[in-house]
């Protein structure tokens, strides 16, 4: 039984094998919604054969507009022991993935570390996170994780509160991302352009909020020179989001404004093609074919 302080919610909540009383409502047992090669991350993560993506159930942030709400809000998934996860990681590697990605794994950090003690894949390990992390939990991953892939979502306390019940999101995420970059240093790539070590920050542009995007890009530029940004334009209203203004995709003009600012700052990184702004790219979760 766990009294949980793994994320910035600091619930001090009971989590046992079957149930959890914290904000995330997750048990201590790992719940996983999908384990499969995944081709749609950034090129240095997915490469040509994909990253071995482990989609954990639940989320410590639970954004109102999440496009994976069945797993992030409603905790859909199947229980896994560390030994079972280790077996799945081995099967992913046998399928030739370039990396292994642990996606929203924060509530299960101990289970992940136990699985990696049983089998450490011989490819870069990626921690794909909302950015809402404690320094203590990140230090648990120091020397374990090779690549951090954090979101940087909201600038103002008001948007953090409105979208994710986290008015402290900006303060927490910027401290967490600084710790990630401290651990990994600047990105390193192999001869095929795959990231072997580093931190890659993702930012999803939200409709009507280009000013927030620009402020966040400025923070990266001023604080973490050389750390790349993946600028994402895929926002679509999901999960019956009821926040005023978030009921539409971003416009080409909004995208252009933020992209031009990123270019003006000369930030290294990636921009996303328009074609990915579709629910067609949401993977299938929780079915037999969802697991290697
Ligand atoms: S992981 Fe879940 S229970 Fe633990 S502190 Fe975060 S929200 Fe609370």
Question: What would you say about this model in short?
Answer:
The protein contains nine helices and 13 strands.
Largest sheet: 8 strands, mixed
Strand content: 15-25%
- Small molecules bound in the structure, each named once: iron/sulfur cluster
The assigned structural class equals alpha/beta
Tell me which CATH architecture applies here: Alpha-Beta Barrel
How many domains make up the 3D coordinates?
Answer: 1
Question: Element order, helices and strands?
Answer: EEEHEHEHEHEHEHHEEEHEHE
How many runs of DSSP E, i.e. beta strands? 13
Which strands sit side by side, in order, in the main sheet? 5-3-4-6-7-8-10-9
Number of helices: 9
CATH class placement: Alpha Beta
CATH topology: TIM Barrel
Bin the helical content: 25-40%
Assigned CATH superfamily: Aldolase class I
Protein model, in words:
By secondary structure, the chain is α/β, with parallel strands linked by helices. The chain has 9 helices and 13 strands. It has helices at 43-46, 69-72, 82-94, 109-118, 135-140, 157-164, 169-184, 210-223, 252-265, and strands at 2-4, 13-15, 30-38, 51-56, 78-80, 99-103, 125-129, 147-150, 188-189, 195-199, 201-204, 229-232, 269-271. Strand 6, helix 4 (109-118) and strand 7 form a beta-alpha-beta unit. Helix 3 (82-94) crosses helix 4 (109-118) and helix 8 packs parallel to helix 9. The longest helix has 16 residues, at 169-184.
Topology:
Elements: E1 2-4, E2 13-15, E3 30-38, H1 43-46, E4 51-56, H2 69-72, E5 78-80, H3 82-94, E6 99-103, H4 109-118, E7 125-129, H5 135-140, E8 147-150, H6 157-164, H7 169-184, E9 188-189, E10 195-199, E11 201-204, H8 210-223, E12 229-232, H9 252-265, E13 269-271
Parallel strand pairs: 4-6, 6-7, 7-8, 8-10, 11-12, 12-13
Antiparallel strand pairs: 1-2, 3-4, 3-5, 9-10
Helix pairs in contact: 3-4, 8-9
């Amino acid at each position: 039984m766990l009294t949980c302080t793994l994320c910035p919610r600091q619930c001090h909540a009971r989590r046992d094998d079957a149930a959890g009383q914290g904000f995330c409502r997750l048990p201590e047992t790992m719940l996983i919604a999908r384990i499969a090669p995944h081709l749609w991350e950034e090129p240095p993560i997915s490469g040509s054969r994909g990253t071995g993506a482990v989609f954990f159930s639940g989320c410590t942030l639970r954004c109102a507009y999440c496009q994976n709400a069945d797993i992030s809000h409603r905790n859909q998934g199947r229980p896994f022991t560390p030994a079972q996860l280790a077996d799945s990681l081995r099967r992913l590697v046998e399928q030739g993935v370039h990396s292994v990605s642990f996606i929203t794994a924060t509530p299960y950090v101990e289970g992940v570390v136990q699985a990696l003690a049983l089998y450490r894949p011989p490819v870069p390990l990626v921690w794909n996170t909302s950015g809402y992390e404690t320094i203590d939990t990140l230090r648990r991953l120091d020397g374990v994780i090779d690549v951090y892939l954090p979101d940087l979502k909201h600038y103002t306390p008001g948007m953090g509160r409105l979208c994710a019940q986290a008015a402290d999101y900006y303060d927490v995420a910027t401290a967490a991302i600084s710790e990630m970059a401290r651990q990994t240093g600047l990105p390193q790539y192999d001869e095929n352009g795959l990231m072997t070590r580093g931190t890659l920050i993702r930012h999803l542009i939200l409709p009507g909020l280009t000013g927030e995007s620009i402020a966040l890009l400025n923070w990266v530029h001023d604080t973490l020179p050389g750390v790349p940004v993946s600028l994402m334009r895929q926002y679509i209203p999901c999960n019956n989001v009821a926040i005023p203004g978030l009921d539409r995709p971003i416009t080409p003009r909004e995208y252009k404004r933020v992209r031009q600012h990123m270019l003006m700052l000369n930030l290294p990184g990636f921009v996303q093609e328009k074609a990915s702004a579709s629910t067609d790219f949401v993977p299938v979760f929780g079915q037999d074919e969802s697991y290697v």
